[in-house]
Amino acid sequence: MYFGGINGLNIFNPKRIKELDIEGQLKFTNLKIKDYYVSPTLLNSVINTSIVNAKSVFLNYDDFPVNLSFSALDFRPNSNINYVYKLLPDDKEWNSLDTKNSIQLLNLSSKSYTLQIQGKSRNNLWQKPPLELKISVSPPWYKSNLAYLAYLLLFLSVVFAFYRISLQRQIAGQESKRLKDLDDLKTRFITNITHEFRTPLTVILGYLSNLKERFSEKDQVNTALNTIEQNSNNLLHLVNQMLDLAKLEQGKITLNTTQSDIIPYVKHLVNSFSSIAQEQSVTLKFESEIDTLKMDFDAEKIRQILTNLISNALKFSFENSQVTIAIETFSQF
């Protein structure tokens, strides 16, 4: 087609319009993290070569925002090029950038992406492969694989610790139950055996009482019977102590208190050991600051306590030593 004009003849050939649709060569030109341009020469750079030739970028989770600039390397005036992009695997369709030749990435999750950029001429996508850049975003330390492994180990340690504690408590409970069963068995045995001892001793003492009444005028027989009675009573007291011990372990011990003067009672108990003290060449004395002291006490329990104390004192005393049982009063402030 030929047209005349003020400057001469104008020629227009419609077949040459396709030259306006020449596909350019897309290249990345700049990479900016936050407000700083990135270069492979910088320390700890996210790229190891120029962004123009880079195939991948390694970002930290806190490197955002990230700005990528690119160019079609088309220097023709009035070139009609628009741009679109995809961020795989998140995007399924192309996103339009219009004529803007940069893209901003904000707060990407910690994983791997592929950024694809493609050009469009007169609303038609270019046929050549798109410009690609692989982007890897590393997670924060508390979301890293090593951290998750540490969490797993910590969780397993806690579970194992709870299991050990539970197992130890179970074993301790079983052991405690076993010891309690053994203790109950021992207590029942002591109770039964003491009752078995107590019954014949009571019978023996009953017959001794009858014999003493019958032979009270015969001194030798009476002395022998007194000795038998005394030793039988001692044995009965021992049996009663065993029975009291069983009751004490079961928490069933009770006090049978009566109000009386404890001074003559203690003096009588001390004097009952005089013969034993003489045989061991030990001086046994009783002293009291007061003549009378009326109080509530269990005579049998006092007898057991003093009997054991005096017996042990005489047993472990040297010859010609002295054992003194004293009752003293103390002022209360």
From TrEMBL:
This is histidine kinase. It comes from the Bacteria. The keyword Membrane applies. Its EC number is 2.7.13.3. The chain crosses the membrane at residues 146-167. It catalyses: ATP + protein L-histidine = ADP + protein N-phospho-L-histidine. Pfam families: HisKA (PF00512), Y_Y_Y (PF07495). Keywords: Kinase, Membrane, Phosphoprotein, Transferase, Transmembrane, Transmembrane helix, Two-component regulatory system. Residues 192-333 form the Histidine kinase domain. PANTHER family: HYBRID SIGNAL TRANSDUCTION HISTIDINE KINASE C, TWO-COMPONENT HISTIDINE KINASE. It is an enzyme of class 2 (transferase).
